Amino acid sequence: MPWGSIELNDGTMIPDIAYGTWKLGNGDVTIGRVKQALSVGFTHIDTAQIYRNEKEAGEALRASGLAREDVYITTKYSGRADIDTSIRNSCEYTMWTCTSYTAPDLAVPDIPTLWAKMEQIKANELAKYESSHESIQTLTQSLTYCRSIGVSNFNVQELTTLLTSAKVKPVVNQILFHPYVLRRQAPIVAFGAQHGIVTEAYSVLIPITRQTGGPLDKPLKEIADRLGAQPEQVLLAWAKKKGVVSVTSSTRKERMEGYLKAGDLELTAEDIAAIDTAGLSRH
């Protein structure tokens, strides 16, 4: 089954693969890369304040000529400035550079903004973090173009604590997710599914981009050879089977096209088990 969309707990739909702008930098080159991703068929762009390329993502979307309803944008609050001002600027800045993700008048507003992109959430910071959640919830009620909010890098305990006080349930939790961290991260995915919180997975391809030579190499190659695919496509198809939204990236058009074709791969239960087992075997 090709890539599609997943329904969120607020009734909106999120495409289940995204082109991420982390490490792309900024400027005209980044605009070109995002525009290329849109041209090959990506319909979900993941950016963030801390990436410093929200403007470029918006410019690329404007230049693409795509209709507003054809593109879904995720951005993240960095926590580096006053929260109300930061979130408002993030939404307005990105929207201003698009023509209604396409138009400056926001005629068909539907831009999801995920709050608080932080690498680590420490226990003694959680109370302050929840206060931020309250502030963003209030803000999004007045910004009709910011429809959904979520969290990033929350573990089960932090999600549990948040759900006891949040007036608005986060729609997603964006986390590190690939087979080598399955033991640690699978419980987060399962908890999210139990509570209607979709997992967005970043760095799915780490086992073949930065951690080669491990136990995953053999099963990925065997499955890829059998299916006439590439190992990175098999990993993305694995993530799709796990029910997560994959956030991936490349500067090469042929790789982008390959990522999209990964949605057509049909992995068997045995394939999934082999990948899981190999991932769990690495300590």
From TrEMBL:
PANTHER family: 2,5-DIKETO-D-GLUCONIC ACID REDUCTASE, NADP-DEPENDENT OXIDOREDUCTASE DOMAIN-CONTAINING PROTEIN
Gene Ontology MF terms in the entry: oxidoreductase activity, acting on the CH-OH group of donors, NAD or NADP as acceptor
InterPro entries: AKR, NAD(P)_OxRdtase_dom_sf, NADP_OxRdtase_dom
Sequence similarity: Belongs to the aldo/keto reductase family.
Top-level taxonomy: Eukaryota, Fungi, Dikarya, Basidiomycota, Agaricomycotina
Domain annotation NADP-dependent oxidoreductase: ranges: 17-277
SUPFAM superfamilies: NAD(P)-linked oxidoreductase
Name of the protein: Aldo/keto reductase
Keywords: NADP, Oxidoreductase
Site (Lowers pKa of active site Tyr): 76
Annotated source species: Wolfiporia cocos (strain MD-104)
Active site positions, chain numbering: 51
